Amino acid sequence: MVQVTLNYLIPDGNDTPLTPREVFVAGINHVGLCGDHRQKTIAKLRQGEPIHLIRFPGHPDDTNAVALFRADGKDIGFLTREIAEEIAPRLDAGSPVTATVSRVEPVDGNQQLLDVRLSVVPYRIKRGRGKTPPMDLLSRGLRPRPGTGRLQRWLSWLKGQS
After folding, report:
1. What is the pLDDT of residues 43-64, one digit of tens each?
2. 52 beta partners
């Protein structure tokens, strides 16, 4: 089984929130990493729902790629390239960044295609604070489903990039 880990720091009372940004989600009209179409997952999102930001530095199209996951392990897409360029170095440095769903709405009146906007808040960490131990994503619900080798192949590729 392929193991994928990351360092993820949750902000605490010592961390200072910086200016929140409302951002679009890229890749909303594709099949997600778990084999489900992202639109099915997006339709279940609720305002204020926390979204987990997961770094994928070995992504072939963007070395700053940041994937976006619900707590149930299903992905909704990626940060746009421009936003990932800013957020990826913060995540790599162990700085907390939170994201919550700010809204889900039809794209240009098309009721079949839903767009997602997130509120992304980077934090300034208190000096001297160390990184948390790596968190195993597979233990958090990111497991391949029977009949979908796509996630397994993708995780294998990702492991080979580190």
Report:
1. 999 999 999 998 888 888 899 9
2. 69
Q: Beta partners for 24?
A: 117
Task: Round the CA-based radius of gyration of the chain to a whole number and report it.
Answer: 16
**Domain range 21-125, its CATH number among 1.20.58.100, 3.90.550.10, 3.30.70.2330, 3.30.70.20:** 3.30.70.2330
Return the H-helix or E-strand segment holding 103: strand 97-107
Query: Hey, where are the domains in the chain?
Result: 21-125
Whole-model pTM over 0.90: no
Confidence band, pLDDT 50/70/90 cuts, at residue 9: low
Residues 6 or more apart whose CB falls under 8 angstroms from that of 144 comprise 34, 151, 152, 155
